[in-house]
Amino acid sequence: MAELSIRIGELELKNPVILASGTCGPELAKFTELKKIGAIITKSVTLDPMLGNLPPRTVEVCGGMLNSIGLENPGVHQFINQKLPEWLALGIPVIASVAGKTKDEYVEAIERFESTEVSGFEINVSCPNVKGVEFGKDPDALLELTREIKRVTKKPVIIKLSPNVSDIQAVALAAEQGGADAISLINTIYGLKIDLTDRTSILGNITGGLSGPCIKPVALYYVYKASEVCKIPIIGIGGITNTPDALEFLVIGASAVEIGTWNFVNPNVGVEIADGIENYCSQNRIKDIKELIGSRRF
Ligand SMILES: Cc1cc2nc3c(=O)[nH]c(=O)nc-3n(C[C@H](O)[C@H](O)[C@H](O)COP(=O)(O)O)c2cc1C
Is 255 in the pocket of ligand 1 (CB under 6 A)? Predict the structure, then answer.
């Protein structure tokens, strides 16, 4: 059997398959054997509760979906007290996704999580801060934010990057220089769908984030560009629906993958991909997944 374990800072995952923020939860245990998954990531949690955006919040489009959930969550205090125990009872590493509008909001939310059993953090930097700047778009702000977060936690920190930037290498490097243990990419891509009966946008928030199979080539491109400049592990996300999709990300340079939208289509997809990667390795006499990671020949 091939060695499938990978490391993100101090955290060792038994395999490189992770379920992505906002697309999974303890309820999946009814449909799949979550113990076979490397790790699971919570919906993004903010310091204070958030109501989210006006409905409709999701719509299917060709090859994927748009969502504009708007970070609805009960806030860190309630999440830790009421929801986290159910996540931790799954018996696999739980990574807390944290979002915020200001540096202080991120830091305070992480400080609250620090004494819990979460295994690490994924930092969602795709939301505007008070000055209207998105941390994920501004390399200097991202470097500073990453540094501050690393100052208050001993747990591994993954910075989740937005594709809605002009220079992905600059933000990836900023996260690395700020001390991130890994980066993950991509979050959703800005998108819209028009209702032609009244010529308005279908989503209550007007714009949304595109995800699903249609974004995979874009995600692969961003992982490729990030891998050209980063030394820290990269986690590939975007449009993964099966084992070959996941393998493409590993070959291009990702140390792990996250599965998002496809959990809604096939709640067993994570387990199928974990098994599929193992089969691929044994069929190709790959003893350790590290032989596969970044093995592209270009
Ligand atoms: C309904 C929905 C909710 C999401 N919520 C979050 C979230 O709270 N935080 C976050 O970082 N990403 C969130 N995402 C983005 C996913 O984690 C993932 O980055 C993106 O969907 C691309 O992967 P996919 O094509 O496999 O879905 C959400 C995606 C969807 C579809």
Answer: no
CA nearest to 87, candidates 154, 156, 37: 37
Tens digit of each residue's pLDDT (9 = 90 or more) over 171-191: 999 999 999 999 999 999 999
- Does 214 participate in catalysis according to the annotation? no
The DSSP output letter for 73 is: B
What would the CATH number be for the domain defined by 6-52+71-190+213-291? 3.20.20.70
pLDDT tens per residue, range 76-109 = 999 999 999 999 999 999 999 999 999 999 999 9
Tokens coding 155: 């747990």
Quick one: which atom of ligand 1 is closest to the CA of 21? 17
Q: Which tokens go with 89?
A: 């009872």
| SS3 track for 11-31 | EEECCCEEECCCCCCHHHHHC
d(CA 160, CA 55): 26
Which residue, 152, 155, 129, is CA-closest to 142? 129
- Distance between CA atoms of residues 236 and 258, nearest Å: 6
- What global pTM score does this model have? 0.98
Ligand 1 atom nearest to CA at 41: 17
Rounded to the nearest whole angstrom, what is the distance from the C-alpha of residue 284 to the centroid of ligand 1? 32
Structure letter (DSSP) for residue 53? P
State in Å, rounded, how far the first CA of the chain is from the last one.
28
For residue 129, pLDDT beyond 60 = no
Pocket test for ligand 1, best of 23, 72, 273 (most atoms within 8 A of CB): 23
Position of tokens 């490189």? Answer: 16
Q: From the CA of 214, how far away is ligand 1's center (Å)? A: 14
Q: Alpha-carbon distance 25 to 43, whole Å?
A: 8
Measured in Å, residue 67 CA sits from the centre of ligand 1 at 8
Q: How far is the centre of ligand 1, averaged over its atoms, from the C-alpha of 188 (Å)?
A: 6
CA of residue 180 relative to chain centroid, distance = 14
Assess whether the C-beta atom of 212 lies below 6 angstroms from ligand 1. yes
